[in-house]
Design a protein that fits this description.
The structure holds three protein chains of three kinds.
Chain A (H helix, E strand, L loop, with lengths): L2 H18 L4 H16 L4 H11 L6 H14 L2 H13 L5 H17 L2 H18 L4 H12 L1 H4 L4 H9 L5 H30 L9 H27 L4 H19 L8 H31 L2 H12 L3 H16 L4 H18 L4 H15 L7 H10 L3 H24 L1 H11 L2
Chain B lengths: L1 H39 L6 H22 L15 H32 L13 H4 L1 H17 L15
Helix pairs in contact in B: 1-2, 2-5, 3-5
Chain C lengths: L3 H13 L5 E6 L7 H16 L4 E6 L7 H10 L4 E5 L22 H8 L2 H8 L6 E7 L4 E5 L13 E4 L3 H9 L3 E4 L5 H7 L4 E4 L1 H6 L8 E8 L3 E6 H6 L2 H35 L3 E4 L4 H15 L3 H9 L3
Parallel strand pairs in C: 1-2, 1-3, 6-7, 9-11
Antiparallel strand pairs in C: 3-10, 4-10, 5-8, 5-9
Helix pairs in contact in C: 2-10, 6-11
Classes of the chains: A mainly alpha, B mainly alpha, C alpha/beta.
The structure holds sodium ion (2 copies).
């Protein structure tokens, strides 16, 4: 057998085996790379060299900055203010609290870019509130976790930055622009689903917000959203890079949370930094490890083989995209978001670009797939956190989430097959 | 024995604080860059290079601390099907593999650092190896953490921090 | 690393007295149809032909194996065998290469190639051996000139303009000497920076002005040809030492023989890009008298020249 073929077998089989044996995913990527490198007789330090190269990117720095901004804002009591703002906007509809939940998640996810953060922040405000107003716990959990997925697509999202890196520098500004319309389509479809179920279960409207409080809620809600405005405005106007916007947003949200609102205490700074480091640690280890793994993939020409494989199955883009979506949804069940983006981008991007799909369009499709994967067991971080907060079993939570899950699948089909939905805004505004 | 533990904890604390401070330093360097560019129309020519250098150090040190805090987890849905005894052995094997990874960073990382000694970074003209030196340094920390974990010593130091994200 | 088959066949080669077979890899950061990649492929083809298929070189275009810096390190390490790279990052390994990047040191393409084909050209390539690599041949990369969103008819128009440069002390000193304000930033950000006015202009060769789409924003191009920085085809020292003396000769000669194909392709690209840019409304201003440009940078060039006296003398001697 040819040495490359044996190399590919070693790489892939060791990867599957170690993943099954619950080795940390990043460590698995490194271990399989090392075994393959040893077999092929390539000097060993190349794996470490690639890990460092994986870190050698200015845009990458946007990730800890975004995460830190989200942490500072959570510490500053931002979730409550955003929920209040959302109540003001959609609370008066039947099943209003469910919609408040979706809108708040869109806003909040807009800042944190992390679905897990959304569930824990918005969820811990919304789920108890919904229960108190007579909503069943499983429904409250279902709508909360599905809504949290909006945040991964709606900018600013560090997952989009991750994709930009994995795709070899697709414009972050374009990706951010591209996420806006799909985000609103998700919001609408989640709100419609929520409304239908609310009618069926006979849920009521939320209480009206007293007139005297409205201005205050509006003001503080908008102020809480302002770090996202800095990030988005900075990037889209071209005034700052994503990384620079992130750094400015850190500084700004720090002033907002520590000096203006004073809800966050200075003694908590280390805690906030440590929390940020924990998330970053996991994501960065994956990025570094994926860089090594990706190098071996390229060295063994696996991406072009996968492309040829797909094209041999069908040359119809509609079919190929369907296969890719099913593949990604299946992989999303056991895989978390970051490894999915980092591992699958270099393999699948050449396939879709071979029939002329825009990398920006594919990015949004991939991210939504990976986001939906956060809801599906066996590894569904968002599902788990949501169930824990709502104190319902995983089975109950999964069952209640299903209608929203189907709604998200419809959105996925829409954005896969109608590229204009994704590309219209970036094409109009970013060249 | 207690003395060794104390010294170890101090070193570990310094290591972690250095990691957190490098994150703050990164924010500082990048914001400075924005302000000098917007207000005075210039950027320190070393700005990007120093940023990337700090980023590599921050990233690798954060990864090492992640091992200490059991953050790098695998998928356990398959192994849950097996008895406890199997999983106990597996825990040892995983700790040993983490140790091997640490050792790789120490040995091969050091070799590569030495190889990069005679080339320079374009802006600051510092030796390129300054970036790669982070591999052996964090490798040592990863070795220590995994060794303790191998002997069933819990290395978590942040029990009080609930998962924010 | 040449792959398992190569290693085993080397062993077999000993007993069967066969010549060893190799599969090598050559990394390039440009797309498959770019002139440098055409040169790479020509080189691979010549080696294949002349060794009767014994030495195969697979070209990996489009930075598949990493960016310039990463690939250079892989070559030093021996993880891959060949790369085509611009000569400016090589200054980090052999600082004599810095001299090639000083402004206005080469008066024409002919001058540059006289120098590169001379003794000093070869000496520079060989001077990389302590860094575990060896230069085989030079490829053409044209000349770099300024472009701007603002009018650019002579050297005095540059005064006060914000020009993007690659981050290096020399480039920043160069901009200052011309009275422009140097703004270092990553290449990928230049387009939006031109759009929003963070910078007024940048500098590059003609094909890059075309492929980067910067011309859509910056329509004033002035051909001052300030730098002519050649590309280099490199082999890892580990791979070079593994080759028999006969194979070394074949590889070296094939590299040199591929230069012509690469240069012809470069000229074609430059012509095609020029035509396209002119149709897109870019104004090309020729510089009739380069003296004021050279005068402006004289003290700066003199300052740097001291460190590279031998190379500078050779450049002087190569003047046609
Ligand atoms: Na977001
Ligand atoms: Na999942």
């Amino acid at each position: 057998m040819e040495s490359n073929t044996i190399g590919i077998i070693i790489l892939l089989s060791s990867f599957v085996l170690l993943i099954l044996l619950r080795f940390p995913i990043a460590l698995t990527l490194i271990a399989s790379s090392l075994m393959t490198v040893i077999y092929l007789g390539i000097p060993l330090p190349v794996v470490g060299q690639q890990m460092i190269q994986g870190m050698n990117s200015f845009s990458l720095l946007a990730i800890p900055f975004f995460i830190l901004t989200g942490q500072i804002m959570s510490e500053g009591g931002l979730a409550t203010r955003i929920v209040n703002l959302a109540s003001l906007m959609v609370g008066r509809v039947r099943g209003g609290l469910a919609m408040v939940n979706s809108v708040a998640a869109l806003f909040f996810g807009n800042i944190s870019g992390s679905a897990v953060a959304d569930v824990s922040s918005v969820g811990s405000v919304m789920i108890p509130m919904m229960k108190k107003k007579g909503y069943e716990a499983d429904y409250a959990v279902g709508v909360t976790i599905a809504s949290a997925i909006q945040g991964v697509v709606v900018p600013p999202s560090h997952n989009l930055v991750l994709y930009s890196l994995a795709a070899g520098g697709v414009s972050i500004a374009s990706l951010f622009m591209a996420g806006i319309v799909p985000g609103f389509i998700m919001l609408i479809s989640l709100m419609i689903t929520g409304y239908i179920i609310a009618r069926k279960r006979g849920y009521q409207k939320a209480d009206p917000v007293p007139k005297s409080e409205r201005t205050g809620i509006l003001f503080h809600g908008l102020l809480s959203l302002s770090p996202a405005v800095i990030i988005l405005g900075g990037i889209l106007s071209g005034w700052f890079t994503a990384t620079e916007s992130g750094a400015l947003a850190c500084l700004y949200s720090f002033i907002l949370a520590f000096v203006v609102y004073r809800e966050a205490k200075f003694s908590n700074i280390w805690k906030i930094l440590t929390r940020t480091m924990r998330t970053v640690s996991m994501v960065f280890f994956l990025i570094a490890a994926s860089a090594s793994f990706g190098w071996i993939l390229a060295y063994l020409k696996i991406p072009s083989m996968v492309t040829n494989l797909f094209l041999s199955v069908s040359d119809n883009p509609i079919i190929i995209l369907l296969i890719i979506n099913i593949l990604l949804l299946l992989l999303g069940a056991p895989m978390d978001m970051a490894p999915m983006i980092l591992i699958m981008t270099p393999i699948l991007l050449p396939v879709v670009t071979s029939f002329g799909m825009d990398p920006v369009h594919f990015g949004i499709v991939l991210i939504l797939n990976a986001g939906i994967g956060l809801l599906t067991p066996p590894v569904g971080t968002v599902l788990f956190v949501g169930c824990a907060i709502g104190k319902v079993s995983i089975q109950q939570g999964t069952k209640a989430m299903m209608p929203f899950f189907y709604a998200l699948l419809v959105v996925l089909l829409i954005i896969t097959y109608i590229p204009e939905v994704v590309l219209w805004l970036p094409n109009m505004l970013v060249k | 024995m207690n003395g060794i533990k104390k010294v170890g904890l101090v070193i570990d604390t310094i290591f972690e604080k250095f990691t957190l401070l490098s994150l703050l330093a990164l924010i500082f360097v990048v914001t400075t860059q924005v302000f000098t560019r917007k207000l005075f129309n210039f950027v320190f020519f070393w700005s990007e290079e120093v940023t990337l250098l700090l980023l590599a150090w921050f990233a690798f040190m954060a990864i090492a601390v992640g091992f200490r805090e059991y953050i790098h987890l695998g998928i356990d849905s398959f192994t849950n099907l097996f008895p406890k005894s199997f999983n106990k052995v597996l825990d040892k094997i995983i700790s040993a593999s983490v140790f091997a990874f640490g050792l790789y960073l120490v040995i091969q990382g050091w070799d590569f650092t030495v190889l990069m000694m005679d080339s320079t970074l374009p802006a600051t003209k510092w030796p390129s190896s300054i970036t790669y030196a982070v591999m052996p340094v964090t490798g040592v920390m990863i070795c220590v953490y995994s060794l303790l974990q191998f002997f069933n010593i819990n290395t978590t130091r942040h029990n009080d921090i609930e998962e924010g994200m | 690393a040449c792959g398992k088959e190569a290693t085993t066949s080397t062993k077999d080669g000993g007993t069967k007295a066969e010549e060893p077979k190799y599969t090598f890899r050559l990394a390039d950061n440009q797309p498959p149809d770019y002139p440098t990649v055409i040169g790479d492929k020509k080189f691979a083809e010549l080696v294949d032909e002349r060794t009767k298929g014994r030495i195969k070189i697979e070209v990996f275009p489009s930075a598949q194996l990493g960016d310039e810096k990463s690939v250079l390190e892989q070559v030093q390490l021996g993880a891959i065998e060949f790369t085509r790279i611009n000569s400016s990052p090589l200054a980090e390994f052999n600082d004599q290469f810095t001299a090639l990047g000083l402004p206005y040191v080469f008066e024409s393409e002919e001058h540059l190639w006289n120098f590169l084909n001379g003794e000093m050209g070869t000496k520079l390539l060989d001077g990389l051996e302590q860094s575990k690599m060896k230069g085989l041949a030079y490829y053409d990369s044209g000349s770099r000139s300024f472009y701007s969103t603002k009018p650019l008819k002579g050297v005095k128009d540059l005064k006060g303009q914000k020009i993007r440069v690659q981050q290096s002390k020399i480039n920043i000193d160069f901009m200052e000497a011309l009275g422009a304000s140097a703004t270092p930033m990553p290449y990928g950000e230049v387009f939006s920076a031109l759009q929003t006015g963070i910078i007024d202009g940048a500098e590059n060769n003609i094909p890059s002005l075309d492929s980067s789409n910067h011309y859509q924003e910056a329509k004033n191009f002035i051909l001052d040809h300030h730098q002519r920085i050649p590309e280099v085809l490199l082999i890892s020292k580990a791979a070079w030492d593994k080759l028999s003396e006969k194979d070394q000769k074949i590889v070296k000669q094939a590299a040199l023989d591929s230069v012509q194909a690469q240069r012809e392709e470069w000229d074609k690209w430059e012509e095609r890009s020029t035509k396209k840019l002119k149709e897109a409304g870019v104004t090309f201003t020729e510089v009739d008298d380069i003296t004021p440009w050279k005068d402006a940078v004289k003290s700066m060039v003199d300052k740097y020249s001291k460190d590279y006296k031998e190379v500078m003398d050779a450049i002087e001697k190569a003047r046609p």
